[in-house]
Amino acid sequence: MPNVENVVRVSKPYKLASREFHPEDTVVEVPSACVAGGVVHIGGPEVVMMAGPCTVETEKQLMTTAAAVRKEGAVILRGGAFKPSTSPYGFRGLGEEGLKLLAKARDEFGMAIITEVMTPTDVAMVCEYADILQVGTRNMQNYMLLDEVGRTRKPVVLKRGMSATFEEWLLAAEYILSQGNRNVILCERGIRTFEKTTRNTMDISAIPLIKRLSHLPIISDPSQGTGRRDIVGPMSLASVAAGTDALLIEVHPNPDEALKDGAQSVTIDQFRELMPQVHAVAAAIGRALVTK
Amino acid sequence: MPNVENVVRVSKPYKLASREFHPEDTVVEVPSACVAGGVVHIGGPEVVMMAGPCTVETEKQLMTTAAAVRKEGAVILRGGAFKPSTSPYGFRGLGEEGLKLLAKARDEFGMAIITEVMTPTDVAMVCEYADILQVGTRNMQNYMLLDEVGRTRKPVVLKRGMSATFEEWLLAAEYILSQGNRNVILCERGIRTFEKTTRNTMDISAIPLIKRLSHLPIISDPSQGTGRRDIVGPMSLASVAAGTDALLIEVHPNPDEALKDGAQSVTIDQFRELMPQVHAVAAAIGRALVTK
Amino acid sequence: MPNVENVVRVSKPYKLASREFHPEDTVVEVPSACVAGGVVHIGGPEVVMMAGPCTVETEKQLMTTAAAVRKEGAVILRGGAFKPSTSPYGFRGLGEEGLKLLAKARDEFGMAIITEVMTPTDVAMVCEYADILQVGTRNMQNYMLLDEVGRTRKPVVLKRGMSATFEEWLLAAEYILSQGNRNVILCERGIRTFEKTTRNTMDISAIPLIKRLSHLPIISDPSQGTGRRDIVGPMSLASVAAGTDALLIEVHPNPDEALKDGAQSVTIDQFRELMPQVHAVAAAIGRALVTK
Amino acid sequence: MPNVENVVRVSKPYKLASREFHPEDTVVEVPSACVAGGVVHIGGPEVVMMAGPCTVETEKQLMTTAAAVRKEGAVILRGGAFKPSTSPYGFRGLGEEGLKLLAKARDEFGMAIITEVMTPTDVAMVCEYADILQVGTRNMQNYMLLDEVGRTRKPVVLKRGMSATFEEWLLAAEYILSQGNRNVILCERGIRTFEKTTRNTMDISAIPLIKRLSHLPIISDPSQGTGRRDIVGPMSLASVAAGTDALLIEVHPNPDEALKDGAQSVTIDQFRELMPQVHAVAAAIGRALVTK
């Protein structure tokens, strides 16, 4: 019997990632004790809120943030244990100690955990603690890392390279998919442009365009995508209006004292104000926000 | 008595355009017979729909489009009579004949007219027909044109240069303002990036950021901003969610036969479907769409 | 008899500018009393040095600079009388007074004059004083200006738009050529990139590539192209090694007191040291530098 | 006694890489049997030619190319055994088999070997065969790879990331340096721009600027830097004129049949014609090309 993957012809250099090959939306399931049924669906009719600190700093910082974002309706907790740093002298994260704190937060609040993995030899360890692996923008074309996360069956959030075209991004997804892992979620996190008042320029058009080119879920990171706390709110609403499947937002109890990327983290108060607005815009386009 | 303009200190190289100098939102008034009171306000609490063909081609094309967009709630009619063309062999517009057709559409449908002016010596003539002057992306730094539209008192839509930073854009606005014309409206129309599946990458973050940097109204052109009819809808909704003061949308009765930029013009049917969605997202963030 | 321009088929959207249409190099003749024969050829076997201040400030500044650069072998004098300024509050040049000073320098030193024209209505006046018209980077797509300089027969240096592709640049040249003016010279002056330590990134590859795509002369402006005096030297040599037909260099007797762009102007001493190096690299690739 | 590294203050975020910290040029020594003294110096007064195929395909292809480029004066042989491929379905290199062929070529022709390493766990193996490790553009911010090559003492060629600023590039070098490996060589290989007729835009200004910012050697890859065989020649000469310490050129006996990147590989004949031109331009700026 012919293998269907070899039968469907596609017009793009990527295949498994293409909408032509796989016309139906892919919905990625993430185990999450805090929701009814114990599973969050990413890429389905509902919008998902992922929130938490950029970087895990201390148990108190993480638990305070997790409690606050869970209370407002976030169902997935973000937090970096392995952090890329442009300078070798910057903070590079708590490592496995940070992963353990994330696991503890999951036990306490029932939220699924998303965290970054930076190198192939760490994949097995990070898989022990995380529910979703994140591949960062600088690693979008780290092919051996893509191969390795492709050999797991964990959901993978693949961030867009900071100067990547959609085709390059979908070819990076193809690396993971072609290793057998079909749980790939794409994340728009801003591209580099000439603008100096923002850290990145968030490309909202990625949301409807990836939906046309691919069946994979597409989510938005307005924190990295802008680098500015004061516009995370409007860019979150714009993402939802454009059809994002989830938001990934950096929240910090005291952003100005954050060890990393404080300028782009919203406060807990700002997050609390944002949630009803997200609900309202989602409702306006006929979607709901899953919160329990 | 000291001139207040010389007293307020600003931290940016632009001054009259800055929020520091002028903390209250500027609301630009445009005479428009089709709305109650006869004036449309751009930059106030309501969102405004501007729509029409990219280029005025024939009386029939213009009138058909104007009738259709007015029926759905557009209150300002767009249409190009002088068109920039990358090639000297491309269509450069009908010139004054096109302006006359626009004036005729205004008489018939009561919509205000927005149209482009490309060179200083045309400003007086275009002012005779237009309610809003448009300065295009290629002319954002055509300083003598900026000076000349600055010497009129007509509302001016100043499109962002295709690789301009916010600072350069606001300095271009400063040219107009410093000549005495305070009726400046900024328009995000996409920037050049490495992406090849779109004509431009629409920078939705310009909307909330310009609101912070400046008191001037900011509007969105998702047609030029994307170059793709199939995502004009989601990008319109994203613009509204992010706080745009108006949408400027290209509509054509038969886009595939358009003389110019058909790929980015929506059909009348698509426009009809879009309007209630725009209403819903505007309502979700507490704004209304002015339609009569 | 068929018009040859309508007979030759070209594969590019530009035609008169293309090497396919016109296989032989175009050599533009500029009257210059200081050289043997009274004419400088741009685009021929010899390399040409154009130098002078960014902006004409005073008679003394201009004459001092002209005397110095002529002494070292420059045969064309640059100097701006109409200057584009990003801010309306910046120095915009001396206008016609500056043109008169340039003409005076021509009378005294026998150098041809190149100076910028910014708007169609100034073309006739600038033609009275200048030997070469310059269209600046911000005006590369100011189509009415291109049309107007195309209606003269003066040599025109067309600077590359700061984010323009080669195709867009050659289409801009096509505007001038199609009006009948075949004396078009292209000038690489740097493109905008993400780099922050330079004002622009000079695209040296434009030199050999334009030579392949077009028959028009191509020259280099390493002052604007870098924005940094300390690398004008190596970038001049790189331009010559890559095949540039001329260099256009900003020289100022006291750059740190320049009214405009002092950071990118070399001193007279630096210019004096550079000239023999330019000679040597030109000789290494089999070309000479015309100096008398 | 204070550690000098902690005493010198630098004004940049990178330190060990900065010219302020280390004012003298770093000269990296590479063992190479084909030259007098058995050592090639990169970063000293002489210019070095590195050449060879993009990718090792077969023994015959490699040996033919190596023989030819050695005969013309290349002293270092390039060739990829581990190749990054944008698509998972592209050719990814021969792996260790390719390394063995490179070692065989070294034995036969006495040239030092430069080859890419893509992931930390391969570093030890690649070190067994290579004289210079290459970190590719996509891995410029693969921090764990940088750490690992930093723990060796092999010379490392660090290619510029395709959208990296000089500061980011020097911070990546700082990762390697701060692990104790001071044998870092920077390589300009083109940046991404809007231009479509080239694969990358080679930033020649990187050569003089890196020389000012850093003491590390800087070399040029005009093959990757342009993606076009027809301009590799002029861009090589431009690099030398601007001060490059070495050229890294792709040569293939039959480029149109290359498994990878044939469009940017020059033929053996083209390479033969180029060498005397490189000699001449180097001589014009007072440098020699080391060939034996």
From TrEMBL, chains A, B, C, D:
GO molecular function, one term: aldehyde-lyase activity
Ranges of residues in domain DAHP synthetase I/KDSA: 42-279
Annotated keywords: Transferase
Keyword Transferase: yes
A UniProt-annotated Pfam family: DAHP_synth_1
GO biological process, alphabetically ordered: aromatic amino acid family biosynthetic process
Record bears the keyword Electron transport: no
Superkingdom, natural source: Bacteria
NCBIfam families assigned: DAHP_synth_Bsub, PRK08673.1, PRK12595.1
Name of the protein: 3-deoxy-7-phosphoheptulonate synthase
Origin species: Dictyobacter kobayashii
